[in-house]
Specification:
- The complex is a heterodimer of chains A (about 525) and B (about 625).
- Chain A is an alpha+beta fold.
- Chain A is about 20% helix and about 30% strand.
- Chain A has a single domain (about 60-430, about 440-445), classed as 7 Propeller (Methylamine Dehydrogenase, Chain H), CATH 2.130.10.
- Chain A contains nine helices and 30 strands.
- In chain A, the strands form seven sheets. Chain A has a five-stranded antiparallel sheet. Chain A has a four-stranded antiparallel sheet with strand order 2-29-28-27, with no helix packed on it.
- Chain A is globular and about 110 Å long.
- Residues about 145-185 and about 375-380 of chain A have low confidence and may be disordered.
- Chain B is of the alpha+beta class.
- Chain B is built from 14 helices and 29 strands.
- In chain B, the strands form seven sheets. A four-stranded antiparallel sheet of chain B has the order 2-29-28-27, with no helix packed on it.
- In chain B, a hairpin with a 4-residue loop joins strand 5 (about 205-210) and strand 6 (about 215-225).
- In chain B, helix 3 (about 35-55) runs parallel beside helix 7 (about 110-140).
- Chain B starts with 12 loop residues before the first helix and ends in a 9-residue tail after the last helix.
- Classes of the chains: A alpha+beta (about 525), B alpha+beta (about 625).
- The interface between A and B is large, with 40 and 74 residues.
- Strand 1 of chain A pairs antiparallel with strand 1 of chain B.
- Chain B: It is found in: Nucleus, Nucleolus.
- Chain B: One of its GO terms (biological process) is rRNA processing.
């Protein structure tokens, strides 16, 4: 007779010294793990709770801020650290993101700074336009031979001839160097510039009241475009003080263009929003418009998707943001709702999968463009069209400018309360290096939340956001109004002669008219 | 088994008509996303055919992984059938015209993309489940214990504990065979914690001791000075609950009293539900009480209405509690329902003395006062077969992790192989006698070891049953690792509290969570009503049939003298019967008159004799 009974050796069960790893056992038999569904669900619930518990998106404000509302903001397309912001009082400030502090304040314009944009070189040249009718070029990495000015800074922007700055350090070194030198007269002797000043040639009409509304730099050529109050778009070469080309009255109306943006891929394509509630596309080679769409209300801002450059998003006065496919302007591809104030600014994530909107209702919202979501905090809403996250603070006022940093980890917002704020793009993300175990457990948790996101309790927790009372009330009101509109439309269809009236979806209702 | 996804597109109708000159060019132009539908369905078919060749045990294991559940498909199929039925005849009266329009649109449109995606995912999941089974077979090198006979003359029952102790087993296993003579405080009960490291002994006359089974040392011991009816560990071996004369008390590892649970009065039996952190007690009053041991709250309290109850055991598959009652019924309980979930009459005319449920939740063994051990299939709630015990009714039952059934009856304990739950086997696996110490008070298998602990009037016996313990440990399952150190234990405590299940998740089907709810409550209720009506109608029809059925002309007994007389009696004109018949007819006529409204004036006849003079 053969008899064998279980006996486990000491070495397989306990570690010999405290420095050893503990022996791990795994039983793969499903009957050893009872109640699998319930336990996994509970884990998912805990994961959703933990995600909300760790949600702490506000990193901090940028120290030493503006003394008036922040009107515009620009991040560099090629460098991670420099950020410039322009205030309503006409000052432009250069910031260092790493230390979250101001490097330099420049008295750029005599009136509100209406637009800021970085050049596409690595030299750190940026342009500001103001309502005083001036465009100025600046440099946030000042060279040692700063006095010479014009060509040096501009040179960097030229395609193919990008030259590295001679003394490239952190922004702080420059600050220290410069602080000695700009004690007396900063406008003339500042190493930051202005490198160059551009103004429109004086014309008979309206020279005095001329102002710039928007500026954008070309993605690859040394060229920038401005929109000004003479209802014209001007293209500029940085080396010339007069515009290269001017387009006036191009889009069937002489309404002012408020925003214009170069397409990242098509080198001659500009999209714009204008005061006549229109958004349009324009080819700079042909001196004629491609197409234009009139929406129900005015659009405040427009940005191209950096990864899918045929998509752009506009922020509208009707509290919504819309994405459009540039090939098909008669219908938006997506409607992004939730704000209870006009959308003042939008900013794409460099990944092109989400964008942030800043609104007059004092909140920021982040929207997914795609349904697939990455991390647990993406679950806020699995569907597109609803914000996956809402950021607000007690002190933040109306948000005028927003931008993602180019590592897509942070969001910058500038608001009426003179502050620039830095937020995490994913509110519960841990900043810094993760250990392998941390990373694995985070991934497991987010996968769990995704798996059970359709269950009411998990969904409720993952979606829950504290919003200001005002926003909450307005949202409820908006829901009521929407329900009323829906009911009315239904009644109209029901009680009119069959076949005469039919339902139109929301996307179909948006566009008032298209102009070619 | 798996086909590699081919890069060339599947031949379509168009390609067949005009074969392209350069096939490479075509491949370059066509975008193929993964495998095509034909390839997928072929893969799925081959996987399914492979599945059908597996053994039933393997198949259920694959299905458990495939569905991500505990693998009891019988529960989910019912739910799915109802869902389909709901979906087919949906109640559209509540929908707005827009919703109705969208619904019709959706109905009319088939979504081939979605279908293909579903097919791909399902195929992948099935293949992964099969791979996981293979991985389990390959990776789990631990083999369980066993007794193997070498010729036909040998029987496994011939292996006695003395033989095992003296030479048949290794030294470190043989030390598990011992007897503790503790007659003074007997009878004794013994319980193990979830890891099988600690055991708690509980003498009826108030002796409680905790033994560390690894060191064979006494961890703590104390005398209560009053009756101790039952003792069990809570989440780990550091805390235990003792059912004493009046209340339940909770003690820590050093025997210090931590809590007195006032709500639990005169408790006879206790069970701890480890995943829900619930201590369930039943006692003299027949109240089933659930106490949350992490928050200290009394979760629920159910009146069983079936009198004092000694037998309580949890179903490890779904955490439902099984109570055995003195009237021979077994009732199933969950904290969320104040009524029992299921009531089964298991032993007619005798009390249920013990209950045990196997780990997969499929089989239940009940022992009754009729000296029977009945095996029940919990999928059907039907008895499959039964065993008879000799030398006393089965007082205690347990099913080990591997499915070995242990029965304590009289002064014997007998053990049956795992097959004994499925089919009736003729021969037992092992037996053990504790002469003069009967009846057995408790019998429990030690988890993760081939050991069984028996409590009886003489004290405690620990015996070795080869093949009864699960060979594979799992460090990820909290508190089941017998070798965990204090740091691991602390971490497990936090983690298992984070994963504590809510008490209302306990249901007969543990996989309902996260599955699709039956959509329409009204339809579900209607369905239940229909079922009840159907059952009623069937019963009524049966009754009717029984009534209409002609009485069989049975020849036997016809000539019995009493019956003959009775038949004769029918023809005899009886005076009393006639009187009664007339009275009845009078009554009838009077009633008819009253109904016609003709009762005026007839009061004289109706009035009692004493009152007639007043008319």
């Amino acid at each position: 007779m053969k008899v064998k009974a279980l006996s486990r050796s000491q070495s397989s069960t306990t570690r010999s010294t405290p420095s050893d790893l503990r022996p791990l056992h795994k039983n793969l038999n499903p009957t050893s793990h009872p109640l699998p569904r319930a336990r996994e669900y509970t884990r998912a619930l805990t994961a959703a709770k933990l995600d909300r518990m760790f949600a702490n998106p506000f990193v901090g404000e940028l120290k030493g801020g503006h003394v008036d509302g922040v009107n515009c903001l620009a991040v560099c397309r090629t460098n991670l650290l420099p950020v410039v912001s322009g205030g309503v009082d006409g000052t432009v400030r250069i910031w260092d993101l790493q230390s979250r502090s101001m490097v330099k304040s420049l008295d750029a314009h005599s009136r509100c700074v209406s637009g800021l944009v970085f050049g596409n070189g690595i030299g750190g040249t940026f342009y500001s336009c103001g309502e005083d009718g001036l465009v100025k070029a600046w440099n946030c990495f000042p060279q040692s031979n700063y006095g010479k000015g014009d060509e040096e800074g501009v040179d960097d922007d030229k395609r193919g001839s990008a030259r590295k700055p001679t003394a490239k350090g952190t922004l702080h070194n420059h600050k220290r160097n410069s602080s000695k030198s700009n004690n007396h007269n900063e406008q003339e002797s500042s190493p930051y510039g202005p490198i160059n000043t551009y103004r429109l040639p004086a014309t008979r009409s309206s020279h005095n009241s001329l102002s710039f509304h928007s500026i954008d730099h070309h993605w690859s050529f040394p060229q920038f475009a401005t929109a000004s109050s003479d209802s014209a778009i001007h293209l500029w070469d940085p080396n010339r003080s007069n515009p290269v080309t001017s387009f006036t009255n191009l889009w069937g109306s002489d309404d002012t263009v408020t925003t214009l943006r170069y397409n990242p891929a098509e080198s001659d394509l500009i999209a714009h929003c204008s005061n006549d509630r229109g958004i349009g596309l324009h080819d700079t080679r042909t001196a004629s418009a491609l197409s234009k769409t009139i929406l129900g209300m005015k659009s405040n801002c427009l940005e191209w998707n950096p990864m899918e450059p045929y998509i752009f998003v506009v922020g509208n006065e009707d509290y919504n943001a819309y994405t459009f496919d540039m090939r098909k302007l008669n219908r938006p591809t997506g409607i992004y709702k939730g704000h209870v104030g006009a959308v003042m600014s939008v900013g794409w994530s460099p990944t092109g999968t989400e964008f942030v909107t800043g609104s007059y209702d004092k909140t920021l919202r982040i929207f997914n463009v795609r349904k697939e979501a990455g991390t647990a905090s993406h679950i806020g809403s699995s569907s597109t069209g609803v914000a996956r996250d809402i950021y607000h603070t007690k002190r933040m006022q109306r948000v005028f400018c927003t931008a993602y940093t180019s590592d897509h980890k942070f969001i910058l917002s500038g608001s009426d309360d003179t502050n620039l704020r830095l937020w995490k793009a994913r509110s519960s993300e841990k900043i810094g290096q993760l250990s392998a175990r941390e990373e694995a457990s985070l991934q497991y948790r987010s996968a769990l939340v995704q798996k059970y996101a359709h269950l009411p309790e998990v969904k409720r927790i993952a979606k829950s956001r504290r919003v200001p009372k005002f926003v909450k009330k307005e949202t409820q009101m908006a829901m009521l109004q929407k329900e009323k509109r829906r009911r009315k439309e239904e009644n109209v269809v029901k009680h009119s002669k069959p076949g005469t009236k039919s339902f139109t979806d929301e996307k179909g209702k948006l566009v008032v008219k298209t102009v070619d | 088994m798996k086909d590699s996804p081919s890069t060339t597109p599947p031949p379509t109708k168009k390609h067949k008509q005009t074969p392209p000159a350069n096939p490479n060019q075509l491949a370059g132009n066509t975008i193929t996303r993964g495998a095509s539908r034909e390839q997928l369905s072929a893969r799925r078919k081959s996987a399914k055919s492979h599945l059908s060749t597996l053994s039933p045990h393997q198949r259920s294991s694959v299905l458990a992984r495939y569905h991500g559940t505990s693998g009891r498909t019988d529960l989910s199929t019912h739910r799915l059938r109802n869902l389909r039925r709901d979906d087919d005849n949906e109640d559209t009266s509540k929908l707005s015209s827009l919703q109705l329009r969208n619904l019709q649109k959706r109905r009319g449109r088939s979504n081939p993309g979605l279908k293909r995606q579903t097919l791909r995912r399902e195929t992948k999941r099935l293949e992964n489940a099969m791979d996981a089974l293979h991985a389990e077979e390959i990776l789990q090198t631990q083999r369980g214990g066993m007794i193997e006979v070498e010729n036909d003359m040998e029987r496994t029952t011939q292996v006695t504990q003395e033989k095992l102790k003296n030479g048949m087993l290794e030294e470190n296993v043989a030390r598990n065979v011992y007897d503790l003579e503790l007659g003074e405080y007997s009878p004794y009960r013994m319980n193990y914690d979830r890891s099988g490291r600690y055991s708690v002994l509980c003498g009826r006359r108030g002796h409680v001791a905790v033994i560390d089974q690894h060191t064979m040392g006494l961890r703590t011991e104390f005398h209560l000075g009053e009756t101790a009816r039952d003792a069990c560990f809570l989440h780990n071996g550091m805390m235990m609950a003792v059912a004493q004369e009046k209340n339940v008390f909770i003690y820590d590892e050093n025997g210090v009293e931590i809590h007195r649970l006032d709500a639990h009065k005169r408790v006879f039996g206790m069970e701890f539900l480890p995943y829900h952190w619930l201590l369930a007690t039943i006692g003299h009053g027949g109240f089933l009480q659930y106490q949350d041991t992490s928050t200290g709250l009394l979760v629920s309290q159910h009146r069983t209405k079936l009198g004092p109850c000694h037998v309580i055991r949890q179903n490890p598959f779904n955490a439902v509690l099984h109570l055995g009652h003195t009237n021979g019924t077994v009732t199933l309980w969950s904290p969320s329902s104040s009524e029992y979930l299921v009531k089964m009459l298991c032993h007619k005319g005798s009390a249920v003395t013990s209950v045990a449920i196997d780990r997969s939740g499929t089989y239940m063994a009940t022992g009754g006062g009729d000296s029977k051990v009945r095996i029940w299939d919990l999928r059907m709630y039907k008895e499959t077969h039964s065993y008879t015990t000799y030398g006393g009714p089965p007082m205690c039952l347990d099913i080990s992790q591997t499915g070995i059934l242990g029965v304590g009856h009289g002064c014997h304990s007998t053990f049956w192989k795992a097959e004994a739950l499925k089919v009736k086997v003729g021969e037992m696996y092992m037996r053990h006698e504790s002469s003069g110490n009967g009846p057995m008070e408790s019998l429990r298998f030690r988890p993760f070891e081939d050991v069984c602990g028996i409590g009886h009037a003489g004290g405690i016996s620990s015996i070795v049953i080869p093949g009864s313990g699960e060979p594979c440990l799992d460090s990820m399952e909290h508190f089941t690792n017998p070798y965990m150190d204090s740091k691991q234990r602390r971490e497990a405590e936090v983690r298992s509290l984070l994963e504590k299940l809510s008490p209302d998740m306990i249901a007969l089907d543990p996989d309902t969570i996260g599955s699709i709810e039956e959509s329409n409550i009204i339809q579900r209720q209607q369905r239940l009503r229909n079922m009840a009506e159907e059952a009623d109608a069937r019963k009524a029809a049966e009754k009717e049939e029984a009534k209409n059925k002609k009485e069989k002309k049975r020849m036997r007994g016809r000539s019995k003298i009493a019956k003959k007389l009775a038949r004769k009696q029918k023809n005899v004109i009886d005076e009393n019967v006639n009187k009664l018949r007339e009275a009845r007819e009078r009554e009838k006529a009077k009633k008819a008159r009253q109904e016609r409204g003709e009762n005026a004036g007839d009061d004289v006849d109706d009035a009692p004799a004493a009152l007639k003079r007043f008319f």
